[in-house]
């Protein structure tokens, strides 16, 4: 009992020290990040409910055929939307846990790649011009190249004992 109480007091003391030493902008950033996490969590829950509702209505109407292209696009488009939102939430949670001060560029690039992958999944190739499909593919290749270059830079920095630049 005494050790639990002393641990709790120590934790509270460290937290109050951290708050007193924190700069106002860091407190502001932390508050905004927490609000964003709550909002995105709410969006994820609503989107999950809507996706479940759509799948259930497809099952009840016996129209659920995963081999049917339109059904596949609807279901997996919803799943990818949820994954993208959860990845955004995760990247913001990193800030709230003070593991990093800002959202990392690599995370933004990965989320962008997920969004493009979702676009390719829900894409109706018959209704879109070839040039638009090519431009989406080029954007995905460009994002992949930037991510690869950043990963190589990070590996080089680690190898040479340098800090990550962001």
Provide an overview of this structure.
- With 166 residues, the chain is mainly alpha-helical.
- The protein has one domain (20-159).
- The protein is 80% helix and 0% strand.
- The chain contains 5 helices and no strands.
- Helix 3 runs antiparallel to helix 4.
- The protein is flat.
- 2% of the residues are buried.
- Its main location: membrane.
- The chain crosses the membrane at residues 31-51, 71-88, 108-127, 133-150.
Quaternary: single chain
Helix count equals: 5
Describe the largest sheet: none
Query: Termini distance?
Result: 44 Å
Taken together, the total number of domains comes to 1
Mean pLDDT: 80
| Low-confidence runs of at least 5 consecutive residues | none
Radius of gyration: 22 Å
β-strand number = 0
Which range best describes the helical content: under 10%, 10-25%, 25-40%, 40-55%, 55-70% or over 70%? over 70%
Briefly note the structural class of the backbone: mainly alpha
> What spatial form do the alpha-carbon principal axes imply?
flat
- The amount of beta strand, in percent, is under 5%
Order of helices and strands: HHHHH
InterPro entries: P_starv_induced_PsiE-like
Subcellular location: Cell membrane
Organism: Geotalea uraniireducens
Keywords: Cell membrane, Membrane, Transmembrane, Transmembrane helix
